[in-house]
Hints:
By secondary structure, the protein is α/β, with parallel strands linked by helices. It has one domain (4-142): HUPs (Rossmann fold, 3-Layer(aba) Sandwich). It has 4 helices and 5 strands. It has a 5-stranded parallel β-sheet with strand order 3-2-1-4-5, with helices on both faces. Strand 1 (4-7), helix 1 (11-28) and strand 2 form a beta-alpha-beta unit. The longest helix is centred in the middle third of the chain and has 28 residues, at 48-75. The N and C termini lie far apart (34 Å).
Amino acid sequence: MGPVVCATRGGEAGRRTQEQAVELAREQGRELIFLAVFDPCSLGHLSDRLSVAVEREQRWLGRALLSIARARARRRGVTVRAVVRCGPVLEAIEAYLREADASVLIIGEPKVDSALSAFQPGRVHNFAERVRQDTGVEVVVVSPEL
Length: 146
């Protein structure tokens, strides 16, 4: 069985998603991979120089956020890695699932509609179904607390 991949960005909702991923990986004795994907293009057109700087900062931020998540998982006895990617979010997640030969993807459904979120309410379920069909990976969508 392949690893559990948890696509996350941090924050309160991200912590709930991470906790569910940790619990699933612990119960099933699988490796957990926290995946953060940032898309510099989501910020609009940037000069080449600024685009490089933004990507560098996004990677740094992703590593910082994921180091906290990794520490929580390790305290629960879970084998864990963290991966940061840049590019179109949905495509990057699907590509990474194939690369990692993942068995499960855990993603959170956003609490509110946000232009900055790749997982807008409703669309996350469409993405989950696409992933299931395209990759055969099981997808768990963590609903926001109301």
